Amino acid sequence: MKINRVKGTYDVLPEESSKWQQLEQAIRDLTKVYDFLEIRTPMMEYSDVFHRENDLSDMVTKETYDFLDRSNRKLTLRPEGTAGVIRSYVEHKLYAEQSLKKVYYIGPNFRYERPQKGRYRQFSQFGIEAIGSSDPMIDAEVIMLSYDFINKLGLKDVKVRLNSLGDKLSREAYQSALKAHFEPHRKTLCSDCQVRIDKNPLRILDCKVDAKHEAVLHAPTPIQYLNESSKAYFDQVIKYLDAADISYELAPRLVRGLDYYSHTVFEVEAKIEGFGAQNVLGGGGRYENLVEELGGPQTPGIGVAFGMERLLMAIEMENPSWFNQHHLDVYIIQFNDALKKEAVKIAHDLRAQGIKTNMNYLNRSFKAQLKEALRFNAKHMIFLGEDEYKKGYVAIKNSETEVQENIKIEEIVSYLSKTIYGEEL
Ligand code: HAM
């Protein structure tokens, strides 16, 4: 019986996995210079971690994978990283250290969404969270990291869109204004939105059904309802971004699709052909109550998460040369079977120096080996011929420059180390 993969999931095939590794490495390098440490939390949590009171986001109400385990515990596959990280922060009392915790994570999440290009039911996120400070400097730092990240990937047509929902009081004032605004349109809104008017009118703004409704298009914006201190906070964030020369654009209608945000919210968009609506590479914002809602002391946090698949697609489209062109450093081509033993030794010596080496294991013809070396994008080819070998030489060809040289057998490793690493061993 043939069984295919689950709808909305994908396989990373061997030829593709090096791209993932390269992106992951870029993330590790970036988070290191910003001094964020990795946190790894489970993929499943008790459902209450995500299904919190008053959370009416689509993600929580319609998209989670909820199930009972064999002991009837209510569990949920994480649909995002933040809530699990905060659960862990509270459980391990990391707040007791009274310092700012800066963490990052890379890993799979699960949402029951309609699959399409750039949208999956299992997808991976790179996210960061900075927990424990309400200084606008840290808002700016999270945005700066996001901006640097995208630039490092060579994505040029990128926009950071920025807005503020303000503090609790501003948010409440805004919610009341939205309620008053939508009330006269109650009957023409979808049934979900009719409930949202009473429970959480903010969520009407990102309703997929009513996206084009006149009342949604002309709804008031949060900025109009910021009180003085929220406005001052937002001005500070902007001041720091300007100081660091980060380009952003104010997006008065941006509210984000998750329910835990207050103050700063932002999204990073790429304009990439063929991407359609899935052009949002990442998004984040400040959250003031999540730690408390999950049983900890009142502690603010801010974070952002990027979709790894979308990042890879964006690089592939905009800057494919960012991916290492060369899968292999060396491919050893054997002219005939007589020198197999020598090929095994050379490969072993090269690998011991960290040089990525492969060769022919299928008794292939010379032509077929050459083809395979090209397919593997081998940076160098070693031609192992019986006559030359007897004279103490092999030929090494650089695939990029097409320069071919005869190299003494005992100098193969040092020659290749020098060309690959730029130094002799
Ligand atoms: P989010 O906007 O729901 O935020 O997701 C962040 C990013 O994950 C999106 O911009 C998108 O690139 C990617 N993403 C989301 N859903 C899918 C999907 N079904 N398929 C592929 N990619 C997807 C959060 O998750 C928040 N936890 C971000 C955050 C961290 N806020 C504060 N800290």
Profile the largest sheet: 8 strands, mixed
How widely separated are the two ends? 54 Å
Q: Which structural class is indicated by helix and strand composition?
A: alpha+beta
- Beta-strand share of residues: 15-25%
What helical percentage do the residues reach? 25-40%
Number of helical segments?
14
Strands side by side in the biggest sheet: 1-5-6-11-10-9-7-8
Number of domains: 2
- What's the total count of β strands? 16
H/E series? HEEHEEHEEHEHHHHEEEHEHEHEHEHEEH
Radius of gyration: 27 Å
The CATH C-level name of the largest domain is Alpha Beta
Secondary-structure arrangement, i.e. CATH architecture of the largest domain: 2-Layer Sandwich
Name every ligand kind in the structure: histidyl-adenosine monophosphate
Overall spatial form: elongated
Keywords:
425 residues; alpha+beta; BirA Bifunctional Protein, domain 2; 2 domains; five-stranded mixed β-sheet; 14 helices; 35% helix; 22% strand
What does this structure look like?
By secondary structure, this protein is an alpha+beta fold. The chain folds into two domains: 14-167 and 227-322, 2-Layer Sandwich (BirA Bifunctional Protein, domain 2), CATH 3.30.930; 330-421, Anticodon-binding domain (Rossmann fold, 3-Layer(aba) Sandwich). Helices cover 35% and strands 22% of the residues. The chain has helices at residues 14-33, 58-62, 82-91, 136-152, 168-182, 191-199, 214-217, 228-243, 290-293, 308-318, 340-352, 366-375, 386-390, 412-421; strands at residues 37-38, 44-46, 65-68, 74-77, 101-110, 122-131, 158-164, 249-250, 261-270, 280-287, 301-307, 328-334, 357-359, 378-384, 393-398, 404-408. The protein has an eight-stranded mixed beta sheet. It has a five-stranded mixed beta sheet with strand order 13-12-14-15-16, sandwiched between helices. A three-stranded antiparallel beta sheet has the order 2-4-3, with no helix packed on it. The longest helix is centred in the first third of the chain and has 20 residues, at 14-33. The radius of gyration is 27 Å and the shape is elongated. The model has no long low-confidence stretch (mean pLDDT 93). The structure holds histidyl-adenosine monophosphate (HAM). Histidyl-adenosine monophosphate is lined by residues 80-82, 111, 113, 119-120, 123, 125, 127, 129, 257-258, 280-285, 303-307, 309-310.
